[in-house]
Write a structure and sequence with these properties.
This protein is mainly beta. Helix content is about 5%, strand content about 50%. The chain has a single domain, classed as Jelly Rolls, CATH 2.60.120. The longest helix has 6 residues. About 45% of the residues are buried.
């Protein structure tokens, strides 16, 4: 595991800020704990209710909600958005999590050619948009965590299906990945303590020459109060 500074590429790609034309509510009325348990499960009902908001940037990619997850397809020949400079397809939560939190998501790299240039990302979403963990080829198969403005940690992996996790305790956030049945911490640092939305996405800064398929499923809030407008 390594930690370095200065990550212009990952910094440019952190989150769906440019790809999503959704407005995330910065403050929602308090709800009783547990009122919205399950509101961030990845399914069509939660998309219809605005609990997840889909965003796509670039030419060619698509996202389909089916079979308990979000299937992202980036076909061969997909190109970055001329305006934003990247391909980015995914979802941001219309709900926020309040207080200390522990969230995780499963991913499966269903079609994952060599040297594909795609990052598969879990992060906090705008307006926070500062912390992420990604699975990709950097250039080797690995996890990479980025905290704005310029802190990175990486670790090699061969997993094509696993889980990524974000944990906030007080003003400290930690990224983790699941390996051989155990959670491995990747990077810890300072964070804000306000309400936080989340995002999952597949991202590339270059044209994609071979088709990539990624599935996100089982987004879980293990700790924290989920607050939704509806």
């Amino acid at each position: 595991m390594s930690c370095i500074s200065s990550a212009p590429l990952l910094h440019r790609g952190l989150g769906l800020a440019a790809a999503l034309a959704a407005v995330l509510a910065p403050a929602l009325p308090a709800e009783a704990a547990g009122d919205h348990q399950g509101s961030l499960a990845i399914n069509q009902n939660n998309v219809d209710r605005g609990h997840w908001q889909i965003g796509i940037a670039g030419n060619g990619p698509s996202l389909q909600i089916a079979n308990g997850g979000a299937l992202i397809t980036i076909p061969a020949g997909s190109t970055p958005s001329a305006q934003q400079g990247f391909i980015n397809v995914g979802m941001a939560s219309g709900c926020v999590v309040r207080g200390d939190y522990d969230v995780q998501v499963d991913y499966a790299l269903e079609q994952w050619p060599a040297n594909n240039g795609v990052q598969v990302l879990l992060g906090d979403a705008p307006p926070v948009n500062s912390h992420s963990i990604a699975r990709g080829q950097f250039p080797n198969e690995s996890y990479l965590s980025f905290f704005a403005p310029d802190t990175i940690a990486g670790a090699p992996t061969s997993d094509l299906a696993s889980s990524m996790r974000l944990v906030r305790s007080g003003a400290t956030i930690t990224t983790l990945f699941l390996s051989s049945g155990a959670w491995v911490p990747l990077l810890s640092g300072a964070t804000q303590i306000g309400d936080t939305p989340f995002q999952v996405s597949a991202l590339s800064f270059a044209p994609v020459t071979d088709e990539v398929k990624v599935k996100f499923s089982a987004f879980e809030v293990n700790q924290g109060q989920v607050v939704c407008a509806s």
